Amino acid sequence: MTEILVVKLGALGDFVQALGPFAAIRHHHGDDRITLLTTGPFADFAAASGAFDRVWTEERAGWPRAGAWLGLRRRLRGGGFRRVYDLQTSDRSSVLFRLFWPGPYPEWSGIAKGCSHPHANPNRDFMHTIERQAEQLSMAGVGPVPAPDLAWVDADVERFGLSRPYGLLVPGGAAHRPAKRWPEERFGAVAAWLADKGVLPVVVGAAGEAGRQEAILKACPGARGLAGETSLLDLAGLALGAALAVGNDSGPMHVAAAAGCPTVVLYSAESDPALCAQRGRSVKILRRDRLADLGIEEVTGALEGSLTGP
Prior knowledge:
The chain is of the alpha/beta class. 36% of the residues lie in helices and 17% in strands. The protein has two domains: 137 residues, Rossmann fold; 151 residues, Glycogen Phosphorylase B (Rossmann fold, 3-Layer(aba) Sandwich), CATH 3.40.50.
């Protein structure tokens, strides 16, 4: 049995878009033992996926400390890894390659200088994440890479007591990038529109989005608020049963798209869908340089199409 290591630390959207590569690596290596190195928020989700035999976690905030680096070095060198797939492909994850000094070094797929299987495409930073990772694995002899898939998710979402049909609203996003957020009062108007259509609006997101959730619930008292109440597996389970999802470019919208849920994603100039757009069976992208310039009617029009089908 060969020991294989996969490195994928986050964030949520990137992690979801690595589900296809995870599956391809699992298929390629058959009965080999595959370990994932990730961060705490993704551990349970990764373990449930069936792609890995072990899940190791390291918190990135602790990595600059010398003790943390030394402990991680001992762990990596003691793992007996014959091959490593660095799907994070950042400067920080490439440092892990150096932790094997003075050798022996495992075979390494990534961008670390001197690695055995580099993703040797000078234009890799201009590729969509899905195509970039597929090409990286192809250069390491792994493929084909399937689309992200969440059919394996088994989450008890019935405990939320949601009536069907329901639609997911994702009004949040990275706290340090407010320009990626559509105004919450407009999400409130969309929630009211959905309710008029007989669709239960369900607000999801992190606990820190409680204020935005309250604004939506005030505009649409019949909506349900689940911000801060769902695990990543719960979120995937809810997306699998949802009639639609609408929200800002954020991790939960990648989950909705991968679940096959009809998805409408709102983009500002802060991110480029050519590089990171959600992928799924039914995804629509609405983009304005300033999200405040995106009208409610354009969003509800896109959702109308999701309710009525292609």
